[in-house]
Amino acid sequence: MTLQQQQRGPNSGELVLIVDDVPDNLALLHDALDESGYTVLVATSGEAALARAAQALPDIVLLDALMPGLDGFEVAKRLKAAPATAHIPIIFMTGLTETEHLVAALDAGGSDYVTKPIKPKEVLARMQVHLRGARQARQAKQTRRALDAFGYASITVNAEDGRLMWQTPLARQLLMSYYGTQAPTTPAPVLAWLRRHLHEAQAQIEPPRLYAELGKKRLSLRLHQRLGAGEEAGEESGDWLIVMHELSDAAIIESMGLAFRLTSREAEVLYWVVKGKINRDIADILGASTATVKKHLERIHAKLGVETRTAAAAMALTRIRQLHPSWEL
Length: 329
Known about the structure:
By secondary structure, the protein is of the alpha/beta class. It is built from 14 helices and ten strands. Helix 3 packs parallel to helix 4.
């Protein structure tokens, strides 16, 4: 965290960097933004703007297009080229109204522009639009990072046109393995499931999960939330975040063995008991005799402190769902 960010109290406004070589312009905007609750930094040259932006990481930049030395177009290009500042929205302030100049501002990385003489109310309105978009992008990124950190893959899908808009590297691998598709194509079963349950999601009722099988592995998909759509938007709009988690028989068996201090074979037997298999079926699956499965089950009962396979299965199922919330029978 930078020094400027540390100095911003928890109730302070978002940080705005104003770049203009004309003091009167700076004063006008500074006062208007300050009164509106923003924390304001100023720079009077392109070089100072780059230094301030790198140090403070403002939430938005108001940038004069024409300045002596390093002009606004070059400042914008450099901000967008630097990973630390590339995400910051830039609003150009320019007296140039010719189409080629406005296009140049956008090509340089500008998100928007306002024309001089500056009207503070117009600037504030434009800022609010881009700051709202930036906040939503940051929230989405934080959500994805948190999910990835715990081994969950995520994708975003546009419900209206069905395109896969974003995916983590793990999600890319999982979609190719389970469905044989890659962005921007959303797997047909996933898209159909999404559209079928949008009404529930809109009503903040968690829809049923979608599952896909691949050998002994199982992919769970959960409809998490909608990103970047206003309250007035309809169901068939916005990008929806879908969280995926892959589980395998081996992972469940290993976690049961650790939880109940079972041997690997005892954990396997208990897993198939939870799945509703009888001793003969378990023997066939494990390549063992029915008598051997029975002996393992007796030891399992002793370790779990229960007397019946039904009680053992119920205890194991409860623990599995605690350790692997996305797992279902």
